[in-house]
């Protein structure tokens, strides 16, 4: 939670403890207010055709959650208000209808409504009247502080989602807005969460929680001072939050730029030293070329068109050290090809089986299991061309995640990919980590954006094979990878501070 949100919680908590307003001897008596409520309660219960509720008895003073000023009093909510009342109006009356998505969350008192006839919403929905307070009772809406005072209702009445608790205040007693701020405090929210019941994702506040919730009640005059003070402070904290958000954006942008700068500098030989005792890049490339010829001769891979040679060094994107060389990505790999989705799509997915990676599972820092689906071993055998191996590089080639690139770990066993993911398999597995680093560089990422083909965003295998890759000696490749693995976590730390 960012500081502005913590400050809002602190302000509201201080408010209901009497710490942001002064207590004046000229204020009216809370005891008189509670007596007034007792007097008018029966009148309004009869007028509103309500059942009497029985809130639990008061408890000893030492059991209360925090101290309040001497002229305040503790009382249960159900003893001073009506919880979830019903409306009795003409069926053909127009009323307001309020689903959960039309109620603002956070520290706002805002909502909108739709127009309905009462006969269409009186059954199966929560009843609402002018000046009622609505409080979400289901996760995550409850924690997100979806609550509001319903004012300006059509004909003074409405109905809404069943996932609301309604609190109705007796006229000229407690100030509704004071209670609304109470319902947005961490004191109320945390207490409600502790009573949650139900299945995950459908948990609700215990039905008796709101009625039996302990309210610290100040004099009416101080209730108004608290409301006014909160209205002064929260806009200032909203501005502070805007500045915090801007700062986070700057930090995120700086971290991203720093990460890109480090990677780009590394693949240009500026983050590591060049050593005379490093092995020859020419011999490395010759070995890779000979291995590829042998794989073709043994029919382990198909013969394909040789990538264009890099002849004109003037067209290369940047200079590299003298003991480095440029080579097309296709000449470094035994496979660069997209996966495929089984015919019928999702109907082929099973609960357990062979992992089937899609673009949402591919990230620069590795494979992620969120949203991972599975296919049968039989389907995996049929899709040999898109089977994934340890040390493969997986590159997203379509959509909003185009360019995201994961290195498959050394202990990977088996898997498959769909048509939105390109498999890049280096002939010499030792260069895989370095090639993965190059593919994540601004140099290649910009090239990916430039070389999209087709009507939709996409990158072809052919274009990818022709990417020029700067190749240092194998020993320096290892130094580059080690250097980046040490520096990038520091960039991420900057981002999240």
Structure explained in plain terms:
This protein has 497 residues and is α+β, with helices and mostly antiparallel strands. It folds into 2 domains: 3-240, Adenine-n6-DNA-methyltransferase TaqI, Chain A, domain 2 (Alpha-Beta Complex); 267-496, DNA methylase specificity domains (Adenine-n6-DNA-methyltransferase TaqI, Chain A, domain 2, Alpha-Beta Complex), CATH 3.90.220.20. Helix content is 35%, strand content 17%. It has 14 helices and 22 strands. The chain has helices spanning 3-15, 30-47, 77-80, 118-121, 176-183, 186-193, 220-266, 281-297, 329-332, 377-382, 432-439, 442-450, 461-465, 474-496; strands spanning 73-76, 81-83, 94-98, 114-117, 126-129, 133-136, 147-149, 157-160, 164-169, 214-217, 325-328, 333-338, 354-357, 362-363, 366-367, 373-375, 387-388, 393-396, 405-407, 415-417, 421-426, 468-471. The strands form 7 sheets. A 4-stranded antiparallel beta sheet has the order 2-9-6-7. Helix 1 (3-15) packs antiparallel against helix 7 (220-266) and helix 7 (220-266) packs antiparallel against helix 14 (474-496). It starts with a helix and ends with a helix.
């Amino acid at each position: 939670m960012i500081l502005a949100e913590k400050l809002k919680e602190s302000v509201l908590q201080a408010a209901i403890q009497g710490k942001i307003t002064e207590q004046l001897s000229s204020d009216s008596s809370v005891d008189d207010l509670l007596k007034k409520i007792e007097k008018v309660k029966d009148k309004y219960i009869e007028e509103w055709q309500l059942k009497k509720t029985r809130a639990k008895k008061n408890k000893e003073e030492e059991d209360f959650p925090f101290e309040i000023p001497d002229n305040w009093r503790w009382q249960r909510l159900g003893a001073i208000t009506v919880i979830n009342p019903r409306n009795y109006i003409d069926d053909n009356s127009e009323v307001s209808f309020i689903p959960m998505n039309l109620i603002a969350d956070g520290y706002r008192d805002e909502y909108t409504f739709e127009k309905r006839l009462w006969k269409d919403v009186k059954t199966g929905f929560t009843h609402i009247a002018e000046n009622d307070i609505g409080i979400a009772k289901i996760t995550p809406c409850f924690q997100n502080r979806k609550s509001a005072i319903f004012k300006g209702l059509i004909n003074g009445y409405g109905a809404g989602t069943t996932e609301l608790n309604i609190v109705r205040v007796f006229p000229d007693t407690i100030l509704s807005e004071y209670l609304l701020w109470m319902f947005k405090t961490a004191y109320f929210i945390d207490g409600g969460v502790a009573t949650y019941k139900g299945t995950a994702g459908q948990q609700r506040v215990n039905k008796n929680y709101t009625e039996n919730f302990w309210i610290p009640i100040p004099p009416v005059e101080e209730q108004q001072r608290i409301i006014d003070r909160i209205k002064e402070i929260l806009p200032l904290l909203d501005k502070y939050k805007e500045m915090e958000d801007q700062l986070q954006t700057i930090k995120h942008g700086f971290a991203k730029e720093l990460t890109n700068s480090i990677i780009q500098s590394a693949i240009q030989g500026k983050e590591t030293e060049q050593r005379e005792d490093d092995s020859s890049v020419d011999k490395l490339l010759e070995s890779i070329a000979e291995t590829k010829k042998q794989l073709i001769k043994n029919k382990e891979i198909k013969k394909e068109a040789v990538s264009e040679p890099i002849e004109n060094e003037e067209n290369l994107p940047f200079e590299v050290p003298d003991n480095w060389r440029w080579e097309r990505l296709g000449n470094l790999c035994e496979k660069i090809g997209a996966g495929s989705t089984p015919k019928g799509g999702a109907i082929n997915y099973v609960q357990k089986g062979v992992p089937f990676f899609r673009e949402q599972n591919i990230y620069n820092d590795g494979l992620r299991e969120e949203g991972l689906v599975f296919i049968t071993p039989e389907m995996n055998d049929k899709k040999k061309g898109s089977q994934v191996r340890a040390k493969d590089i997986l590159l997203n080639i379509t959509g909003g995640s185009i360019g995201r690139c994961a290195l498959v770990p050394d202990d990977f066993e088996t898997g498959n990919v769909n048509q939105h993911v390109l498999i890049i398999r280096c002939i010499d597995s030792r260069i895989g980590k370095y090639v993965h680093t190059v593919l994540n560089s601004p140099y290649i990422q910009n090239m990916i954006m430039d070389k999209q083909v087709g009507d939709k965003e996409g990158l072809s295998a052919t274009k990818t094979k022709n990417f020029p890759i700067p190749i240092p000696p194998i020993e320096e490749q290892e130094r580059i990878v080690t250097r980046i693995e040490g520096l990038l976590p520091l960039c991420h730390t900057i981002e999240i501070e």
